[in-house]
Amino acid sequence: MPRTRRLLGSGGYNAALIAELVGEAGTVVTADIDAEIVQRARACLDAAGYDRVQVVLADAEGGVPEHAPFDRIIVTAGAWDIPSAWREQMSERGRIVVPLRMRGITRSFAFDHDGKDLVSDSYRLCGFVPMQGSGAYTERLLPVTDGVALQLDDQRQEFDTKALAAAVHAPRLEVWSGAAFDMPDELELFLATSTPQMVMLHGSKDLVDQGVLAPSVTRGVPALVAGGSFAYRTKRPNEETGGFESGVFAHGPDAETVAARYAELLRRWASDHRRRGAARIRYVPMPEGAAEPSAKVVAKRLGAVEVSWS
Fold it and tell me: Phi/psi at 288 (nearest 5 deg)?
């Protein structure tokens, strides 16, 4: 078996599983920033007979250069960006599997190197605790009114929270798209990456129970915000669309405009991209701070995530 090196983001259990895959000829390195976790992982791996796994205390932002290159880098914490060290420490046939956080959602992507950038057409819904250390990043949670907040990637975005607070309790506009509601994780990725004006809307169960907001807000839902108006996704039973139909609830003085834009996104996804794996993700390294958000581009500190749909 060829010698294979793999870097894990943390813990001992995953390292043991990877050790089984690579066999005696492979090398497994597991790293964590927490000394207590490192000590526990070392003790558990030794007790289970995996003494060949190397356990390292390190900040994942810098990787583990003394053991590079790696054929596989598997990250088991939510990363907001892809550090340069990970790309530099990949072997020529390397792959990075990383739970990447963007615009309030997380997807685990398998990135391969195409000679220039990192590309992926393999991704899955996932959830991990956020990364600590130098790579830590806290999304901005902007309170709008009691029980309502916006979760943002971009710390520079500005919102008229007073106008949005008034809009929450104003009569809502309902628009039904005529499009099927299906595969909400794929739809969520499409919506979240469609425009920088799409943020995550979070609302309380109390407001749902009062009929102010739809149930989709309780777990967070992509919301299109324009001035003092916003629109977000909902659904209703409809056998003609396969069981459920996508719809839009909109609030504010420009509710008709934002609802129409949102409904068109729902129709476009349902007609053109309603399947698994329709997205192709490209991570383009850039000088720090150079990336700018735009349609289908999510700006990161060290690069840009470009999303195209087939």
Answer: -55, 130
